[in-house]
Amino acid sequence: MKVKIFMAVAMLGLLSGQTAAADEGKVLHDESCIACHASRFNGQAEQMYTRAERKKNSYASLKQMVAFCNNQVGTGWFDEEVGLVTDHLNRTYYKFPKP
């Protein structure tokens, strides 16, 4: 019985860690990306990600675009933060298989 309880608690800990990372990617995105994208699309920032002619075709190309924007805008994100934002965008809009 103690083993089952321990395993349940351990799984909850893993899931909460994944949720925290997912939330961090969204926070970084919302703080650094939304204003620019919304200004380009009449307040509809999500159009940056959903319009057919701009949609990326792989997780790798999406990550390259996030890294490009990071450099252009000067957010100063580290690779881990670029990954968190990429994961957020992928989960929310793109649904590419992650390598």
What is the structural class? Answer: mainly alpha
Number of helical elements: 5
End-to-end separation = 37 Å
Q: How does the overall form come out from the CA principal axes?
A: globular
Number of strands: 0
How confident is the prediction overall: mean pLDDT?
83
What's the helix-strand series? HHHHH
Unreliable spans: 12-16
What's the number of structural domains? 1
Write up this protein.
The chain is mainly α. It has one domain (2-94). 74% of the residues lie in helices and 0% in strands. The protein has five helices and no strands. It has helices at residues 2-32, 34-40, 47-50, 59-73, 79-94. It is globular, with a radius of gyration of 16 Å. The termini are far apart. The model is unreliable at 12-16 (pLDDT under 50). InterPro entries: Cyt_c-like_dom_sf. It comes from Magnetococcus marinus (strain ATCC BAA-1437 / JCM 17883 / MC-1). This is Cytochrome c domain-containing protein. GO terms for molecular function: electron transfer activity; heme binding. Residues 1-21 form the signal peptide.
Quick recap:
With 99 residues, this protein is mainly alpha-helical. The chain has five helices and no strands. Helix 1 packs across helix 5 and helix 4 packs across helix 5.
Task: Please supply descriptive tags for the structure shown above.
99 residues; 5 helices; 74% helix; globular
Task: Provide the fold topology.
Layout: H1 2-32, H2 34-40, H3 47-50, H4 59-73, H5 79-94
Helix pairs in contact: 1-5, 4-5
